[in-house]
Amino acid sequence: MIQELVFLVISLFVIAGAAGVVFAQRLFHAVLSLALCLLSVAAVYITLGAEFLAVIQVLVYAGGVVVLFLFAVMLTRSDLQLRREPLESFAPVSAVLFGVLVLFYIARTGFVPQGERALAPGDVASVGQVIFSPKAYALPFELVGILLLAAMVGAIYLARRDERW
Amino acid sequence: MLAELLPEILLIGAALLLVLLQGFCGRDACAKLSGYISLAACGGALLLVSLHSGAGVERVLIPEIIKLDAFSLFFKLLFLTLSFLVILGSLDAVKRYRMGGEYYTMLLFTTFGMLIASMAVDLAVLYIAVELATISTFALAAFRKDRQGAEAGVKYFVIGALSSALVLFGISLLYGIAGSTSLTAIAEALGSSSGPVASLAVVFLIAGFGYKIAAVPFHMWAPDTYQGAPSTVTAFLAGATKKMAFLALMRIFIVALPGLVESWAMLFAVLAVLTMTVGNLVALVQSNIKRMLAYSSVAQAGYVLVAFAVLSSKADLTLAAGAALLHMFVHAIMKGGAFLAVAAAGSAIAGRDISDFAGLGRRMPVTAFTLSIFLLSLAGIPFFAGFVSKFLILMASVSAGGAYIALGVLLVINSVISLYYYAKVIRVMYFEGGEVHRAEEPVMLVAALVVSAIIVLYVGIFPESAIQLAKSSAASLFTP
Amino acid sequence: MSVSEAYLTVGIFVLVGVLFPAVTIFVASLLRRPAKPEPGKYLTYECSVLPFTDARIQHNVEYYMYALLFVLFDVETVFLYPWAMTYRSFGILATAEVIVFIGILALGLVYAWKKGALEWMKGWR
Lengths: 165, 480, 125
Description:
- The structure holds three protein chains of three kinds.
- By secondary structure, chain A is mainly α.
- Chain A has helices spanning about 1-25, 25-45, 50-75, 90-110, 125-130, 140-160.
- Chain A has one domain: Up-down Bundle (Four Helix Bundle (Hemerythrin (Met), subunit A)), CATH 1.20.120.
- Chain B is mostly helical.
- Chain C contains four helices and no strands.
- Chain C has helices at about 5, 10-30, 60-90, 90-115.
- Chains in contact: A-B, A-C, B-C.
- The interface of B and C includes residues 19 and 23 of B.
């Protein structure tokens, strides 16, 4: 009972944040709403026991990505205001259809794992056990490092002012 | 284990070295040096893999994480061959457009990611490897930093991020069902039961990878990206990174979801029909050669999807999967070669319209001749490699019988249509354009073109060993 | 005690953190002066000098570069957290893995440094 209540309150914040992103008149406000949305999602992760995900959500998304968004907004010209195009007629229709489809799937399943393995625990220590074990995800862990490096080099190359020298 | 991973270690070592190198030398000298280092690393890796591939090994390197089998070796051969050719050709292009040495760094990162993806038997590893390869290509697509390149890069990035999100959602649903990301564990957990969640996962995976292979209706980014990116990069995108998505599809669907074959093969059949037909019909009216080749790429992806659809039949599955593999390999070489030829033509011709290529046959004879070979092969003319692989797909669909024959017939009709726009380019190159003077052809690009053309002709004239290799590689997918 | 219960204190803290300014602002609104709008009152307060442009100017790409590097190293830090929780059970092995991981990203830092991505408004190399 209390769990459902907590979940409902948190999801209210998630939805409010998401709606803010979509409906905000100013880009800056949209980004701040995004921060609210991301933080609330972190709270959802906590209620599900996925501690590591929550940490990532707060540190990387609410902390880093939102800052990146803000700076990206600051890079744009200030006279660019959000212009609301009238919605294409098929947009609401397809949104409703998609919603019905998702509801249908949610109604059809209990989301019970079919396999014999239970889902892994999500607290930081257990995640660490899996990540650093050479029999499990040690290799993908290093791959993530390489992925970050590739992203860094690519982004710096592209964002750099290219004075032909 | 380290011995088997030597090609990967070589590549990533070179890539990391190049990252360091970019900071410590001047731009042009650095780019040149980086080119030679990456060429050597890629060549070395290619040599190591080709020495390995004959042995028919199957080694589990890390249980349920990565596995080296004939299937992954086949793709490693494909990726490394194409990377080698593209790097070879890029030596000229990078110099001409004064691009930075980061170009090669990104190419090596992509190749490394693709090699890991070829061995991955775990969805998380597969996803990270695919991401590594795609993230590096985002930068490559926008590498020239001009208007067109920026458009190409942004479109590619947005669509790439969207498709990755779809794939990830599909993966998370599978994980929710099975409690594991290992492909074999998912296959065990699912069995042949197809609950609503599993079918939703199938839809998400197909849509996500559908974007990456540019299947209709997920194809709209491809022409713009292929047109705006530097031609050498386009050769790499069309030739190699697209094949990585096919690889992931084959691994996931054949190994993890064999129980759901009825439903996914059906989807692939629908996609195949749409992709072949729309790709070819739109290619007919293109005036820009890169857009034309891009739509031809879309159509060719449809031919591979025909082979995927046949996997639900009772017929010889290794034939169908082998046909898909062979067509991917052949397409990588001939489409990569065609884009490299466009890059070579770029040294003398400013425009990229087909009409700009008038008289290329006399202006740049080697480029025009090899381009003709690639185009004829793409059309599926006998004695070229494209014919062999298409014929194999046709054979697979006919031997499956029933409605699969219709797919094969559609493939033949589409091939006939495609001949028109391929032949148009050849006609323009040889029979149009007035007096033209010889232009100097870029040496490295021509070398890459000649090597690709030799591969295309060799596979076309002596197809037995290539077919054998493709079939035995495909067979390793079906043995647990 | 499950993970979510352990975070109950955090939840209460957040709740107080949200409620405190909300209540304060509400109480302040009860005590406010009568509303008499006037354009001058809506100007941005800049230590008594009249503002002469919008605050939303177009910023330099350097800000973005810093944010970008910040996010990347942020992700790196996130992976150090589980390592800090588990390194005892793996001993030298996990430490070696983390050192390789940091080493790979350090290359990126060297690259950024050498390319002048960390220099402020200076001519880029």
